[in-house]
Predict the structure.
Amino acid sequence: MKTVVMLTKVFFEGHPKAGQTTDFADNVRAGKKIHTCRDNYEYWAKKITKLTTEGGTLSVRQWTEKPYRSPQETITDIPATETGVSQLIIKKDTHCVLPYRHSITTYTATVDGKAVEMETLAKNDGFTRAQDFTSFIDPLFDKYHSDTITLAIIHFNIYRYQ
């Protein structure tokens, strides 16, 4: 069995680094990007659980050029015994600071019920700064009209958050 997960080659429009390369492929190969986060936890949990139960590989890929309009290139294939899935819950809190009337946004995260620093999540997901990671996932808060989102962490090796 083969399960495919796609990584983006460039930051999407609306991200502060829009159009710049993500370097995700190089970071996966170098062991710096050890997981990816995905919307639709239930879907990915079922898919990765089936992969780990039945065996096979997780094929990590990216589009060569435009998404869905160009061939895919394989970054790496990961044996099912090394992959896994965890539940990531991120809460976003925006509050106004007086007297300047500007807002401050903070994020908190739990992985399988355990608190994890956003900087750690960002680093393990291949980002150089937590701000790049939060800007990457921020559209999901708008999509669900919620200050809490649930994501799937798809692991690329045996590391798990403790």
About this structure: The first helix runs from residue 24 to 29. Residues 2-155 form one domain. The mean pLDDT is 91. The chain has one domain: 2-155.
